[in-house]
Model the fold of this input.
Amino acid sequence: MSKYTLTSAALLLCSAVSTQAQANDELDKIQREVGIMEKILTAALKQDTDNKVRNVSSSYLQHQGVVFSFDVRGSSRWSSVFASVPDAPLPPLPDIDFEELAEIEVLGDHVQVISDAVVVKTQEAYQQAMEVMRESAERVRDVAEQERDISREIRDLEREKRDLEFDRRHDKDAKDQELEQRKKELQTAIKELEKQQQKLSQKQQVMRKELAEKKQARVKEQQQQLAELVQKVNNSLSLTLCDYGSGLRNLPNDEHVSFVIRGISEDKSEQVKVFKKSDIKKCVQGDIKATQLLEKASSYNF
Done:
């Protein structure tokens, strides 16, 4: 092998090593920038959503972009707790996660401790809600049971009435007048019970309708709260990208910044939002506003 060939091979090897080292250096820079952006996003989202965001994490897909993911604790979390008792009104509850009642959260130099008083308040509200639901369901069951009791009593009277008619036909020695009088008494009692049964049936229908309306109002309220929370999350993301997106300077302009958001879709799917790095750069430079950046993002559930 000639000296020229050896030299060329050595140059190619050095070039490959240099290229790989440069690529690794770029990845290290992106990793550092993504880690800083993750902390910024965590602080911004928790502040903008009243601390309803948790488990913020990030990763980088080469030639595609950065992916952030996090969970959102919305009002729908409470509705799943009470799903076992339908048609009952829910009182307002503080939005505190039972899993985090004893949790100490550290953000920078700030330490936040959820106090024992908050724990007690949350537990009392939970117990109050369950008691209201049990009482509502119990009232409906009581009315239904009264209606069933009357139905059984009507059947017993009808049976006695048939027995009297049978005796009258087959017992020639029976006192027709006494049998006829008892039959009239039974008919009067049956009519009175039927009136009571009708009133109870109407009362039960009214109660069930009221409970259904209260449940529907609660569901509507939860949907509105969820929509407001989604808007807060979206605004927080777009504003944070506009304010701090310059920190992702080593992310190529043709790649993307994506967010996988769990807990804001009623069907329990994940919502995905994808921003172009080039659009984020425009917002950082003031060429577009945060609202426009949000409009340009792709959004879908998966």
